[in-house]
Design goal:
There is one protein chain. With 224 residues, the chain is α+β, with helices and mostly antiparallel strands. It has one domain (32-223): Glutaredoxin. It contains ten helices and six strands; from the N terminus they run H-E-E-E-H-E-H-H-H-H-H-H-H-E-E-H. A six-stranded mixed sheet has the order 1-2-4-3-5-6. Strand 3, helix 2 and strand 4 form a beta-alpha-beta unit. Helix 3 (89-98) packs across helix 4. The chain is globular, with a radius of gyration of 21 Å. It starts with a helix and ends with a helix. Residues 35-215 form the Thioredoxin-like fold domain.
Length: 224
Amino acid sequence: MRFLLALFALLAPFTVAAAAPDWTQTVTRAPNGAYVLGNPKAKVRFVEYLSYSCPHCAHFTGEASGPIRSGFVSKGTVAVEMRNAVRDRYDFTAAVLARCGGPSRFFGNSEALFGAQEALITKATAFEASNVLPESAPVNDALIAVAKGAGLTDFMVARGYTVAQVNACLIDKPTQATVMGLTREAWEVRKIPGTPAFLINGQSLPLSTWAQVEEKLRSAVAQK
């Protein structure tokens, strides 16, 4: 027995501690339907209202996505919630497609859409100028046509989806309803001034640059 106790004492320092969770790989769905990256119980909740046709949103995403993951989300202290604030039918189409594949694909799809925004918007503008699709077109027909005309279908196929999967995502009524619900909350309830717009723990930030947001996030984390 003494030998075993001595052996356990020797082995104790070499016990491997449980690995900390990688919160950058955790995506959950909030009650409002928005997707949340990071620890869902994080003490700081950072909300971004976004539009896929908004160049400022694309610029912010390019600046912020890496630093916010490594500096805040990975530590479990900040969770990032993305809420749609749709501005036009290209934006609505892109917002529906960003959700294709569920939580695990959302943030990758979203960032990729912003990365390809300039080319996609150029195609979308040309498509809209052609007047081939009236504003009164049925929603599902319009979404499929806009996705094809703006290059979104090809974009999603390049990301590993089939055309059938893309079209199925586009016409999914619960997804459409979620995007529209988030949009109504943004413009009609919250009354955001534009996109991107930000909240930290429910408080609006009159800011637009990553440097400004980063400072506020650090302050919020420090105060908790």
